[in-house]
Amino acid sequence: MDATIENKPTLKGAEFLVKESVVNEVFTPEDFNEEQRMIREMAEQFIAKEVTPILERIDKLEEGLMPSLLEKAGEQGLLGAPFPEEYGGLGKDFITATLINEALGAGHSFSVAMAAHTGIGSLPILYFGTESQKQKYIPALGSGEMKGAYALTEPNSGSDALSAKTTAKLSADGKTYLLNGQKCWITNSGFADVFTVFAKIDGDKFTAFIVEKGTPGFTLGAEEHKMGIKGSSTRQIYFQDTPVPVENVLGEIGKGHLIAFNILNIGRLKLCAAALGASKNVNTITIQYATTREQFKQPIANFGAIKHKLAEMAIRTWTCESALYRTAQLIDEKEKELVAAGKPFNEAVLGAAEEYAVECAILKVYGSEVLDYVVDEGVQVHGGNGFSDEYVISKAYRDSRINRIFEGTNEINRLLTLDMTLKRAMKGKLDLMTPAMNVMKELMSIPDFGSDDETPFSAERKLVSNFKKAILLVAGAAVQKLMTKLDTEQELLMHIADMAIETFVAESALLRLLKRIEIEGESANALQADIVRTYITDAADRINKYAKDAINSFAEGDEQRMMLLGIKRFTKAASYNTKEARRRIADKLIAENKYIW
């Protein structure tokens, strides 16, 4: 039976903060079924055969090259895999769609064009379009016959998307809306056939429109000269009395924000998937360089400083993968639950993604920062050669940087992580008050200095549980102390968000390990145990620092001293030789001469 159906997760959005997950409910990458593995291999082969050999041509924006690659991907079903069959898609589940995004993530600029096309370029129409709109555009977008783009950002409205200035005015005959304005940083704009464009009707009704290439008054600026992803078409677009038929209004008038924000939830997870695929690729490139580059009459892979880098790159990649597919399954199961309850496909997908919007924001931040770390260390391992365009690692380094800006900056996503969690609590969807009060009571009691619990990784389980207590302690006190002023304390909010990110990733990695041990035994997962123990040990120190900085920003006197003692208690980890653990991890990677997990 498909593992995605066997597992029935029970956690609601953001509930990981206050509840424990059951090991056998968690989906891990090792649970992919045979079909999913075949689809991943097909996507990887597409990158290896069709994209990697022509990266230089892609970066030079060779006329017609990127559209032809998208068409080839469409012919193999890689673009329309998650689209419903009635619109020409393959009807694949959310986990499979995530897996395709990951596998195609190693394609540099192609990955950006593909993700923009299948995500923000197509999903607004699929999820919010009328039946006639979906019938007209989705089959062609799924096959690659038409290419999609998304026009939201303007020169003076980036993170503050609702401050857009582009206007839409109903014509005298009531048949068209006349668009006037400017959009910038529009991915795929140089070759896209259909654009989702946001404008304000009557100056205040933020609304989405479907605009086709070639419409009068719709013009393009020159290609932007970018730091990275040079092969991705990025232009400004201009509207001057551009007539858009009234039947091309997308969704409800004045409800464009629902499209913009809901699509971003899915986009954030997809970005993490693509970053993961790129991270795996750079791991392999760097390992292979380290095993062939010799200094002092031996491969540099033999040196401890290099082993540390190779191992840490792998640790962050493996933990990212653990958190990604844990979340993908939560969304997949919620979607199935909503469909079973009678919700139509589009509402089910959007509802599932909205339920786990906190986790999607976490993944966006962590995935993009993992890739940035991996490419940075990859350049360092390459030394001077890493600074040369002759080596693909320099391209990977430049291409990575945009991911911390795409799909909402990482700063915005950190702020959203806590903001959305608190809003869920205020709406009664998440009980934070009870566990937060329990943490305060625990601080007043005699500490638990240990128990006879001999279950596998009991110390790590307890430490992750304590991480959650640390978050509840800091967040609870901050809300109580600052109340309405909390949203102005962005530094504090981001510290708490970083605690939550570390905790979610640590728990996801631990749950993945425990599930594999239940199935395969501990000896078969010794290196994975090294990965998890090393990550959790280091996470304890990072969470301790975030918590102390947060507490010191708003508390003082006895309250401050009590809370700092509590953080010390909740982040106390047993001694662990992370140096030897990293050497064991690196030695395996070096022996295999590639990233293996």
Structure description:
With 597 residues, the chain is of the alpha+beta class. It folds into 4 domains: 3-147, Acyl-CoA dehydrogenase/oxidase, N-terminal domain (Butyryl-Coa Dehydrogenase, subunit A, domain 1), CATH 1.10.540.10; 150-250, Butyryl-CoA Dehydrogenase, subunit A, domain 2, CATH 2.40.110; 256-408, Butyryl-CoA Dehydrogenase, subunit A, domain 3; 413-592, Butyryl-CoA Dehydrogenase, subunit A, domain 3 (Up-down Bundle). It is built from 20 helices and 10 strands. The chain has helices at 3-6, 34-51, 55-59, 65-75, 94-103, 109-118, 123-128, 131-143, 256-292, 304-340, 345-355, 357-382, 392-400, 410-426, 433-443, 458-482, 490-520, 526-552, 557-570, 578-592; strands spanning 148-151, 167-170, 176-187, 194-201, 205-212, 218-220, 234-245, 249-250, 294-295, 298-299. A hairpin with a 2-residue loop joins strand 9 (294-295) and strand 10 (298-299). Helix 9 (256-292) packs antiparallel against helix 10 (304-340), helix 10 (304-340) packs across helix 18 (526-552) and helix 16 runs parallel beside helix 18. The two termini are 23 Å apart. The model is unreliable at 1-7 (pLDDT under 50).
